Recover the amino acids of this structure.
């Protein structure tokens, strides 16, 4: 399937433009590229040329690998990538406030946000693991997963934990 035929989904590059409240034309002016070139990269109509990739990475303050897949196309924005970008931005803000020697009470909300994002990141990893199990289409694993979920939903955490430790599942 050709890339142009794929339904457009948000890319990391597009998301960075949005959260930084930038425009394609504004970025284009600063990086000496046309808005059409930039749009083609965001919409995955063309790969991002290596000579432009470093400029984009520097502009947004990220590593090149954050922006592209292994074929030089803009990386799709997954929930996992979105959380990682938010953590990067929060880390930057914390570092900025610490450099300014801001009061701890000004920094703490950002640290709390980072802890929240780390919890979300772990949840996303768990969801990805469950999806991988479901995609194996193994009836035994489906039955085990259903058993565990049923017990958890019923609030039987302690008895399930004890059964798992005894090997009684």
């Amino acid at each position: 399937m050709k890339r142009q035929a794929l339904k457009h989904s948000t890319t990391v590059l597009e998301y960075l433009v949005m959260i930084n409240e930038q425009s394609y034309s504004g970025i284009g002016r600063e990086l000496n590229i046309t808005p059409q070139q930039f749009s083609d990269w965001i919409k995955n109509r063309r790969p991002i040329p290596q000579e432009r990739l470093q400029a984009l990475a520097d502009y947004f303050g990220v590593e090149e690998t954050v922006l592209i897949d292994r074929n030089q196309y803009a990386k799709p924005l997954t929930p996992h990538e979105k959380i990682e970008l938010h953590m990067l931005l929060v880390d930057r803000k914390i570092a900025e406030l610490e450099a300014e020697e801001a009061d701890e009470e000004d920094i703490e909300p950002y640290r709390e946000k980072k802890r929240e994002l780390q919890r979300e990141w772990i949840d996303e990893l768990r969801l990805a693991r469950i999806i991988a199990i479901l995609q194996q289409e193994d009836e035994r694993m489906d039955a085990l997963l259903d058993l565990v979920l049923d017990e958890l939903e019923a609030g039987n955490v302690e008895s399930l934990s004890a059964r798992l430790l005894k090997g009684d599942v």
User: Anything to note?
Assistant: The first helix runs from residue 12 to 19. The CA atoms of residues 24 and 38 lie 6 Å apart.
